[in-house]
Design brief:
Trna Endonuclease, Chain: A, domain 1, 54% helix, disordered C terminus, alpha/beta, 9 helices
Length: 196
């Protein structure tokens, strides 16, 4: 069973914050519970902080395992140096490894069609070197996904997105794969076999 937290729930926000934020809240709750309750309930009062200690431990574990910014930038530079054929092959391999059935489309608005557990999706990554992506490529991907009856859309880039593009992606439920998420997706992609 997978627990889905609301995006802006207290625990979801704490999982995205630094680990010590949860630890401070947990310590405050434990001290308050211990100090405010009668002697026979002090231990119970202190234990009410356990969910925050748990979230702090999970956040610390994730943050310790997360790639460092210098490593992420190094990997993004490597991805930018790849030819289209090498980059597309790396994305294809990563999607297959993650359990998707992959079909190459090589259309302007989408590069791959993916399928998993009866759900279909479209992936666009041809503009992987674009430093800042605006709304238009996302709109094209969204329209292609609608036309194909796909339930998911992924847009992959080594760059970033304009605020309008981020808002559009959130509204249309397009998953933006860049920075750390891209490094994790293409973790097995090695050195380029040919440079463009």
């Amino acid at each position: 069973m997978k627990l889905n937290l609301g995006k802006n729930s207290v625990f979801a926000l704490l999982l995205r914050a630094r680990w010590w934020v949860s630890a401070l809240i947990a310590a405050f709750i434990a001290l308050l519970g211990y100090a405010a309750l009668p002697p026979q309930y002090k231990l119970f009062g202190a234990m009410t902080s356990m969910p925050f200690w748990t979230v702090g431990a999970i956040a610390a574990w994730r943050q310790l395992r997360a790639p460092k910014p210098a490593y992420i930038e190094h990997r993004l530079q490597l991805f930018r140096s790849l030819s289209w054929q090498d980059f597309a092959a790396g994305v294809d391999h990563a999607l297959l490894r993650d359990g998707f059935a992959v079909t190459r489309l090589d259309r302007p608005e989408a590069d791959f069609s993916i399928r998993s557990d009866g759900r279909e999706g479209m992936v666009a990554c041809r503009r992987w070197r674009t430093p800042i992506t605006g709304v238009e490529p996302l709109r094209e991907l969204h329209q292609a996904a609608l036309a194909a009856g796909a339930q998911e859309s992924l847009y992959i880039t080594t760059g970033s997105f304009t605020p309008n593009a981020i808002a559009f992606a959130a509204d249309k439920k397009i998953r933006l794969v860049h920075d750390e998420a891209l490094v994790k997706l293409l973790r097995e992609l090695g050195t380029p076999s040919q440079k463009k």
